[in-house]
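Case study: Enoyl-[acyl-carrier-protein] reductase, mitochondrial.
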Amino acid sequence: MALPIPSPDILVNLPPVEVKENDVCVKMIAAPINPSDINRIEGVYPVRPPVPAVGGYEGVGEVYAVGSKVNGFSPGDWVIPSPPSSGTWQTYVVKEESVWHKIDKACPMEYAATITVNPLTALRMLEDFVVLNSGDSVVQNGATSIVGQCVIQLARLRGISTINLIRDRAGSDEAREQLKALGADEVFSESQLNVKNVKSLLVNLPEPALGFNCVGGNAASLVLKYLREGGTMVTYGGMSKKPITVSTTSFIFKDLALRGFWLQSWLSMGKVKECREMIDYLLGLARDGKLKYETELVPFDEFPVGLDKALGKLGRQPKQVITF
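Here is what the predicted structure looks like once written out:
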């Protein structure tokens, strides 16, 4: 049963934690509010920490103190939990040395705090399902999400075109221009796709072999319509909470494949070294201005405001990043 999100009107002081010989104490700098964080609180996420628990799954911090047997870190180093680890919505976090990954301080704080859950999802989906070459194309719904924005930019770096679907709502024209500025080749609202043959809208782009779905419902059906014969749609979210409906024709005559991606499952496959190498790659892109997305910094004592924005209570908002 989903539980209502409580109103966090007060901050809780936790008792001190001993820093053991292999531990690193990290003073948190920033941590985002991701949809999966909210799902954990609601009790609807497949993996949840034992309660009582501190929220947050990724973030960046500065090493404050180290245990007597820790050699890889020094006070002042910037670190992130890699793979991500629960409990980043607090001022100090004490965990074993193996949890932390040292990063370059030259990367902007807001990107260091948010680089894992969304950008890494975009990178893995582009690389794990279909062999894509320069000149190919991909199609996605939810293009204004951070994953969607990262797909556009990472694909462009590889010479891959993107066909991007957005919802009809206030500000859609502005959103279209923002995605174009990131490198989107085509951006269509759902109402523009009320035509018999959506592929007729593709003038100079090849039919995509790969599609990404984070919405479900009709938005997923539109992605499927774009795919070429033998194409694959990867689902990594379900924002509309509506099921994916696939026509018999799509399976029989187009031989489409439906796959799913869950970053936490991928990370659980003993891929710590690979994960950290990709994180460093993505951080390098962010540092060099080649990977961009909008965030909003929220002081820790204004967490309730950030949470309301993350829940969509105040309309569409940038990714909320708590600062400590």
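For the exam, be able to explain this: The domain at 23-117+265-323 is CATH 3.90.180.10 (Quinone Oxidoreductase; Chain A, domain 1).
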